[in-house]
Design a protein that fits this description.
12 helices, mainly alpha, 2 domains
């Protein structure tokens, strides 16, 4: 039996590339990708191993055809298709009512005044809401992924966020510090990084950033208006390994933990701004008056950055 070296080399190259890709995926905590690369590293070289040790008609033609198919497949999956469309940042034509969010609707209790009033205005939402309302819900002991430690940890984080709500606003210092816009902006961004944020941006607070009506607990039905000129948006990083366990408990643990961390930072920076003599309010989980994604977008998170500050007593809204 003659060994056909070229086919053997092709098999070896394919195996090495795919096996190394599997190792990289393991290192990056991508178990699904690692499994696929690992299986492919043994399956795809097989035809070329066969061609290396056995002689048959059209062997070279078959080998070339298989190799061409593999290369074509690789080209297809790595080539971006479609036109590159320029992103156009749209402006909402009307303010968002927090009562329409899933979190607010989830709090509605059957046969109560709020329940009857809301679905009287929005009968189209009642069917789908009742369907998911029958599910066990977040952190319920009957959930399929229930784990007493994981769920209790997540609940502890969320309860801590609730404890922070009384501190989102407060008295403003009598003495106003005449702060330099540039200096204060730089300081807030650097300090926020020290406190644990991944990114920080500042933008002008727009009318469409503010909910038209509150939708959670005591704020239900309360009309909101713009109270500040500027907004600071921050993000925190979540642990990728914990999120990769979804839908298991560590995912909700990490989500709840970071809600708490970013809430704590928001409250702390809002207090700092009030200590300088400027009004500021922290908007944290369950206590929003603004639409966070719109503020974050306009503050340049993930896009362009901005540096805005004002010396006005009515200067800053923070979430």
């Amino acid at each position: 039996m003659n060994i056909n070296t070229p086919f053997l080399l092709i098999a070896a190259v394919i195996f090495i590339i795919l096996f190394c890709s599997a190792l990289v995926s393991v290192k990056e905590s991508e178990p699904k990708a690692a499994k696929r690369f690992f299986l492919s590293s043994f399956i795809l070289p097989l035809p070329f191993l066969v061609f290396s040790f056995f002689e048959f008609s059209y062997k070279y033609e078959s080998g070339i055809a298989i190799l061409a198919v593999i290369l074509l497949f690789v080209i297809i999956i790595i080539t971006p298709f479609g036109r590159n469309r320029k992103y156009i940042q749209t402006v909402p034509v009307k303010k968002i009512d927090e009562r329409d969010t899933m979190f607010s609707r989830n709090e509605l209790k059957a046969d109560t005044e709020r329940y009857n009033e809301y679905y009287g205005r929005n009968p189209d939402k009642k069917t789908i809401d009742e369907k998911w309302r029958k599910k066990h819900g977040l952190l319920n002991s009957n959930a399929t992924q229930y784990h007493p430690y994981h769920f209790a940890s997540a609940e502890a984080s969320l309860e801590t966020v609730k404890a922070l709500r009384d501190a989102v606003d407060g008295e403003v210092a009598d003495l106003t510090i005449e702060a330099s816009p540039t200096e204060t902006t730089i300081y807030i961004k650097k300090w926020s990084k020290k406190l644990g944020v991944a990114d920080c941006g500042i933008c002008e607070l727009m009318d469409y950033h503010v909910y038209s009506m509150g939708g959670r607990v005591e704020r239900y039905g309360k009309e909101f208006t713009k109270k500040h000129k500027y907004a600071i948006a921050v993000t925190v990083e979540m642990d990728h390994k914990m999120l990769a366990t979804a839908p298991n408990g560590p995912t909700v643990m990490e989500s709840a933990q970071q809600y708490m961390e970013v809430g704590k930072i928001a409250v702390q920076i809002a207090m700092f701004i009030r200590n300088l003599g400027y009004e500021a309010r922290a908007h944290i989980d369950g206590n929003y008056e603004i639409v966070c994604p719109l503020v974050a977008r306009d503050a340049g998170l993930g896009a362009n950055d901005s540096t805005l500050w004002t010396k006005s007593k009515d200067c800053c809204c923070y979430y």
